[in-house]
From TrEMBL:
Organism for this UniProt entry: Oligosphaera ethanolica
Descriptive protein name: Nucleic acid-binding protein
Domain of life: Bacteria
Domain PIN: 26-183
SUPFAM superfamilies to which the protein is assigned, alphabetical: PIN domain-like
Alphabetized Pfam families for the sequence: PIN (PF01850)
């Protein structure tokens, strides 16, 4: 079943848009993961690979246009989780079933491999742009809970959106359609479902 979005953001198709010098983008975790963890290309469907490569092309284009690029420290947690999960799945495919905690605690060589992949990925992330700080305190958590009432995003994204708001960043490069339901931001995406829905709802913007 396809996801039915109510689009409230301004949506841009990255296949039809180019970065500008005046842009300031937050690059979401899904794009950072794709750009920095090459093993995903081995486990994803070829059509998915083609779509995700568009994000890398767009982000790389920000260097030519002198656009500002930011990332959130919370993305490290997301990248670490998915990289460890993927490494375990690769291991299980050849060695048989192993639980998540068993894999983490009982296989030293595999653990070293996971850490190496995470460190390499994050080193690439930090070379892409500027860290957008987020302080998770009582004020931020209250704001995140308030967002939860009206914006259908996950827990990580609640705090990423708060970080964007606190630093005046309104543009996000993401494959996550949930961001398209958030008012007051600009979503740059290659997500076909989001693009088609935004067009149908009059929220697809040309530039």
């Amino acid at each position: 079943m396809s996801v039915h979005y109510t689009i409230q953001a301004d949506v841009f198709d990255i296949g039809q848009a180019s970065p500008r010098e005046s842009d300031c983008f937050l690059v979401d975790s899904n794009v950072l993961l794709w750009m920095t963890y090459s093993k995903l290309r081995d486990v994803e469907d070829p059509k998915r690979v083609q779509i995700m490569n568009r994000y890398a092309d767009f982000v790389n284009g920000t260097g030519t246009s002198n656009s500002k690029v930011c990332y959130c420290g919370l993305s490290l947690a997301e990248l670490a989780h998915i990289i460890e999960k993927t490494e375990r799945e690769i291991y299980v495919a050849s060695a048989g079933a192993v639980g998540a905690k068993e894999y983490r605690q009982n296989f030293a060589a595999e653990r070293e491999q996971v850490i190496s992949e995470i460190e390499a990925a994050w080193a690439q992330v930090t070379s892409l742009g500027e860290l957008l700080p987020v302080t998770i305190d009582s004020v931020t958590t209250a704001a995140a809970l308030n967002r939860l009432q009206t914006e259908r995003v996950d827990g990580y994204d609640l705090f990423i959106l708060e970080s964007m708001r606190n630093h005046g960043v309104v543009q996000v490069i993401t494959d996550d359609g949930d961001f398209a339901t958030v008012p007051g931001i600009q979503v740059f995406t290659a997500n076909n479902n989001v693009i088609k829905t935004a067009h149908a709802q009059g929220r697809l913007i040309s530039r």
